[in-house]
Amino acid sequence: MKIENKNILLIFQGGNLGGAERQAFGLAKYLVKEKNCKVDILFVYSNTLSEEFKEVLNKSNINKTHFFGEPYLFLKREISIKNLKRLKWSLEYLLKLRKGLIKNEYDIVIPFQNTQSKIAYYLYKLLPTVKFAFWHQLGLDVLKHDVFESIAVNNMPCIIGNAENCLDMFKTDYKVKTSKLNLLPQYLSLQKELRDKEAIKDVLKIPKDKFVFGMIAHFKSFKYHDVLLKVFKSLHKKHPNTHLVLMGNKDNDENTLSIYNNLKEDIIKSSLQSHVTLLSNEDVTDVLISLDVGVLLSQIEGTPNVVMEYMLYGLPVICSNHPGCVNLLEDSTLLVNNNEGEILDAMERITTTKSLYQKESENNLRYIKKYNVKNYVEDLEVILSRNFN
């Protein structure tokens, strides 16, 4: 099935620019320019847009956006007055979606993450023109196990995950047939740019004469900025020519701000202000250009965008050995368990061994070439052809 000349609806959680949203914008650009499609967005939880999101949206090829209020689509397996109300609220929300979207005559619905995927299933059933929709599981996302979700998971024509571990919950929780499960790693959505590295380091207050490790990741509990900071303290004692950059967005919510403040307090308490740069919501490309080594330590991942972005800039990558990371980095010797000793060993080896640095850099530049939007769309077309008759 070729995705050409189609009306497409993308479903977002909200107006913050995370990895899933960057993927969606890149996909939209390709489908509009190369496939002559028209692409719209449905916001599920909120249409309040971050400044970063607004900037990308204004430059994108999105035709229009929709928002119909916060969703209610949940039903427990119980007999109660509250559950009857849940059913009423859920049906009202679905009817509101149908009324608001039916005139747009969408052909394909592409959700990003699980709640959006649940909604995509019911749009697939409620909108008469929609011929293709799928469950789209990305990274660290959870299932709610309610009645509406169960119906959607078990009846959606296919489920797509961006790494093997993303599909595990469907095998164990819902016993979905293996034939319905599809692996499709996302593509690299960032375009490589040439910028003045020295000038950027001046602005970001990163020393120019140091060997710079950096971790770009949301300030979330399942991202281990704190572990990296702890290991860096040991590294820096032995290798004082090293520097660490930690970057995320502290303003997402109270939890992200708390994690940022805890890191800041730890840096000050350890007298590392000159050796650790803590950043929030800076330009990702500027930070990538400033690094010598990319790091991602976390509890769980799908196929992480930031690892692909490190690879784009030819950075060796020290990374937790989740399946999606292993698929990207293949035979890298810098894949680690979340063990402080292993992480420190990897950091020391890449600091002191020039031949290892060069090998990892060259491999990553080569491996990343296959993760492009053209290949992604071709693989998606194969999956849709196989699962929709």
Summary of the model, kept short:
The chain is of the alpha/beta class and 389 residues long. The protein contains 15 helices and 14 strands.
Q: Could you explain how this protein is built, in words?
A:
The protein has 389 residues and is α/β, with parallel strands linked by helices. It has helices at 19-35, 51-59, 81-101, 114-126, 147-155, 164-172, 197-204, 225-238, 254-269, 284-290, 305-312, 323-329, 340-352, 354-367, 373-387, and strands spanning 7-12, 38-43, 65-67, 108-111, 132-133, 135-137, 159-161, 181-183, 211-216, 242-248, 276-280, 293-296, 317-320, 335-336. It has 2 domains: 7-187 and 372-387, Glycogen Phosphorylase B (Rossmann fold, 3-Layer(aba) Sandwich); 197-370, Rossmann fold (3-Layer(aba) Sandwich), CATH 3.40.50.2000. The chain has 15 helices and 14 strands. Helix 12 links the parallel strand 13 and strand 14 (335-336). Helix 4 packs across helix 5. The N and C termini lie close together (10 Å).
Q: Strand order within the widest sheet?
A: 11-10-9-12-13-14
The CATH class label of the largest domain is: Alpha Beta
Elements, N to C (H/E): EHEHEHEHEEHEHEHEHEHEHEHEHEHHH
Q: Mean pLDDT across all residues, rounded?
A: 95
Q: CATH homologous superfamily of the largest domain, by name?
A: Glycogen Phosphorylase B
Note the total helix count: 15
SSE-based structural type? alpha/beta
Give the distance, in angstroms, between the N- and C-terminal Cα atoms.
Answer: 10 Å
The percentage helix is 40-55%
- Per DSSP E runs of 2 or more residues, the count of β-strands stands at 14
Q: What would the CATH topology of the largest domain be?
A: Rossmann fold
CA radius of gyration: 22 Å
CATH architecture of the largest domain: 3-Layer(aba) Sandwich
Strand content: 5-15%
The best one-word shape is globular
User: What can be said about the biggest beta sheet?
Assistant: 6 strands, parallel
Domain tally: 2
Unreliable residue runs = none
